[in-house]
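Field reference: sequence -> structure
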Amino acid sequence: MFANHMTFLMLAVSLTVPLLGAMLLLDSPIDPQPLSFKEPPLLLGVLQPNTKLQQAEKLFENQLIGPESIANIGAHVPVPQAPMVLSLHVMFTGTADGRIVKLENGEIETIARFGSGPCKTRDDEPACGRPLGIRAGPNGTLFVADAYKGLFEVNPWKREVKLLISSETPIEGRKMSFVNDLTITQDGRKIYFTDSSSKWQRRDYLLLVMEGTDDGRSGQRTTRGLRLLLAPHSLLEYDTETKEVKVLLDQLRFPNGVQLSPAEDFVLVAETTMARIRRFYLSGLMKGGADLFVENLPGFPDNIRPSSSGGYWVGMATIRSNPGFSMLDFLSERPYIKRMIFKVTMKTIIPKTKMKMHLIRIFFDLCSCKNSRAAYNI
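Structure field:
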């Protein structure tokens, strides 16, 4: 019995000492700040989990790698940039291997690439590019936010690509590292988009989520004739005529999806790390001001898109279980645990973590939630 106890003790010591040594000697890649959340809303009533999304028809299954945002151009309408009258339901999306593809009549066609090289692993993303937000403009062209390359306009009919803003443009010595989503006015003049971080790239999104900082800064520079006013962790506005870029909101924690209101009097931005959506007013008495559109969401929001009911569909990266246990809520007030986790597991957790937020969605209609059913796939 004594020998067994000694063996157990020696085993415990042999495991604990290296672990403590690693905690003391290794640097943490993140410097997380404590965050405070309200108790997550109960997943009852309209928030009751269900399996509706599992019943959805799967299109192009196993043919597309990581499709993100989707743009749909018209239905049997003439498009100035198109060679003929547009057929019904032509869809476009960006994929994890750096392509913009057209989806029509069951066929997949590559229409553009912003990068080059082999596009097989997470480490290939900076060279290959990673198209994220994509929207259809008023003239039949596409506007695309690439996480690594910047903002582009793509003519899908002529296969022409035009760079609007490059992520390589240094702003106060720092580049945009994580261009994310965008939304465009009906006349195509102004684009509102998010720069999720000036520190972390998309391939390091988990570090961005765990760090949870809002180290935004703003400044004004003139580069190559462009008047630039940028900040990391920001909601920005780009004028396609004047080429001017302005910061609307900064010091955001993981700004993600964006969506203009139908009247274009405000723009919404998902603040993923904080489980909330901010609103910036573009006109009216509140012009230039901002407030909380909705907070304490039942999950951490990603993209925002309009719904036919007048509200908005919001894709959730993950839910905040209540009743149940939410790991991100638990860790939010314990930055020391985050540091310890990434000190010990940094080299193993990041490469093996796959971004699944675009495959599993939680939809929540913000403006009509009392009269609608939230669709959950858990």
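Note: Confidence is low (pLDDT under 50) at residues 215-231, 349-378.
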